[in-house]
From TrEMBL:
Name used for this protein in its record: Fumarylacetoacetase
Pfam families associated with the record: FAA_hydrolase (PF01557)
Gene3D superfamilies the record matches: Fumarylacetoacetase-like, C-terminal domain (3.90.850.10)
UniProt keyword list: Metal-binding
Organism (species): Geothrix limicola
Domain Fumarylacetoacetase-like C-terminal: 27-227
Signal peptide: none
InterPro entries: Fumarylacetoacetase-like_C (IPR011234), Fumarylacetoacetase_C_sf (IPR036663)
Domain of life: Bacteria
């Protein structure tokens, strides 16, 4: 069948230690999944049901590197997160079966136009322009779960120009990874190639042109970007 426009390239992530790639289908994100971050955003950190938003799959920046400061904002923020990559999917997946759907894990940054997000919140509007802009989802190489297991604890951190800005532990998540998958699969049919950003600890803050950002999670490959 002939396409009336050139077929767009499929975004993909590298897989650590191999020449294989992981094609990215969809990107889902969990909001306010660490109590300390919920507090700093002015929200109640009690264990309410998780909520989700998305980013287009072509916002992914495989392996990090240079990221352009986006237009229409003067308050670009960093949010370091554990990213989960799915090799299986389905609907209404029980939390007890969720780990069987996971291919691997990576470090990611949910870049956010905070001023646009605040304006959207105030007006009760969607967050799409605040979260889903070009290059808003840098992600390091994936570490297969077959090699690193399923991390439930471990340090998660981010530095800007060598100064630590964020530090937490995966054990501080309000909703665990299996619980996140279970809840999300109640709203949509998950599928191989889906990525899930699982929330960020406290310390989110602004980035400027020229900033060098380095972040990591214990046991996973670190991620570095430079804002240009």
């Amino acid at each position: 069948m002939e396409s009336v426009i050139p077929l767009p390239a499929m975004p993909s992530l590298s897989v650590q230690g191999t020449s294989a790639v992981f094609p990215v289908r969809r990107i889902y994100c969990v909001g306010r999944n660490y109590a300390d971050h919920a507090r700093e955003m002015g929200a109640d950190p009690h264990r309410e049901p998780p909520f989700f938003f998305g980013k287009p799959h072509d916002t992914v920046v495989p392996g990090g590197g240079e990221v352009a400061y986006p237009p229409a904002t003067s308050n670009l923020h960093h949010e370091v997160e554990l990213v989960v990559a799915l090799s299986k999917g389905g609907r209404d997946i029980p939390a007890s079966e969720a780990q069987a759907c996971i291919f691997g894990y990576a470090v990611g940054i949910d870049l956010t136009r905070r001023d646009l997000q605040a304006a959207s919140k105030e007006k009760g509007q969607p967050w799409d322009t605040a979260k889903g802009f070009d290059q808003s989802a840098p992600v390091a190489a994936l570490s297969p779960a077959a090699k690193v297991g399923h991390p439930e604890s471990g340090a998660i951190w981010l530095t800007v120009n060598g100064v630590e800005k964020q530090r937490g532990d995966l054990s501080q998540m309000i909703w665990s990874v299996p619980e996140v998958i279970a809840h999300l699969s109640g709203f949509v049919t998950l599928a191989p190639g889906d990525l899930i950003f699982t929330g960020t600890p406290a310390g989110v803050g602004p980035l400027l042109r020229g900033d060098r950002v380095r972040c990591g999670i214990e046991g996973l490959e670190a991620l570095e970007i430079v804002v240009i």
